[in-house]
Structure prediction request, 378 residues.
Amino acid sequence: MNPFTEEHQQFRRTVRQFVEKEIAPHAAEWDEAGIFPREIFRKMGELGFLGIRHDPKYGGSGLNYWYVVAFAEELSYSRSAAINMAVLVQCEMATPIIDKIGTDEQKQLFLAPAISGEKIAALGISEPSAGSDVASLKTTARRDGDDYVINGSKQWITNGTRADFLTLAVRTGEAGYGGISLLTFPTDVKGYSVAKKLHKVGNLASDTAILYFEDCRVPRRFLLGGENEGFYHIMTNFQGERLVASVGACEGMKRMVQEAIAYGNEREAFGRPLIKFQVWRHKFAEHLAAIEAGRQLGYHAVEKFEQGEDCTLEVSMAKLYCGDLAQRVAYDCMQFHGGMGYVVETDIARAWRDVRLLTIGGGTSEVMKEIIAKYSGF
Prediction:
């Protein structure tokens, strides 16, 4: 299956050139710093990377989802899953809901500057007791005149230490999924604070934070969609989040294997190149076949997503399969590099650390299995 036109391929080449020039040379440096320059968002905004499928009225390109797939795949050549994640949160997790159901005012205030890279966005859903289980979130938004008054906390929020606004999930009604709403939330509001920057095992160059809300006031006109109707939009948004993670992971795995093979052609042991040992040749052959299977599973899910069909089952399968496969591929590629693979600043060591998130973020593998079981009728 090859859904890409020449226009898609031209866009793909532009993305590759940018990430190889502007990000890859600094991947180790920014990992060590624990952050990357805000300027990356602005540069990506100038190139149209942050509003690929968003409304052109607000600076977007209005393109189809296959451009997003090409973007996610080429991001892997940045050699920094951390930066890739931060950027994808900006353009494919925090802003699609605003593009879809936001008012003109919300789009002018939040969507347009996010597309240009002027403002950094974050998605405020997860909490200490509510990650994949969104229906359990406890952060409240109480009506008070023309405002909502917000109290609670969020955790594991990518871009959290420097976000200019959040697409924020809050409880406005009864317990369970029926009482959840969404707000556009500017972070310069009194009572809002970044409680802590979390120190993670991998994805070190992206900032991840715990956020606090203490009697924060935002106008009721910042409500996204209808009150108590947020759960459906969150669940729909999850499909796009899981899709970009899956298709991006496949290209990242392919790159890891190709670079391991290149290393194995140069590195000799017992008088011959490492790659000539059958145990490794067969292992990498198996991985390449599995990666292509994962890619096609993801593309099948994208096709349904692009057509507006329910693709929850297919997306969950792709997320489960690609996330678990990435663990095995990264492990073997690191092992193949021997001692060099164990050096912190090497690309393969960074990839090995970073792929661990794929079975956790955006819904754990265990949650994916539950969804697959439910949709399969058992």
Remarks:
- DSSP finds twelve helices and ten strands in the chain.
- Residues 122-228 form a domain with the Butyryl-CoA Dehydrogenase, subunit A; domain 2 fold (CATH 2.40.110.10).
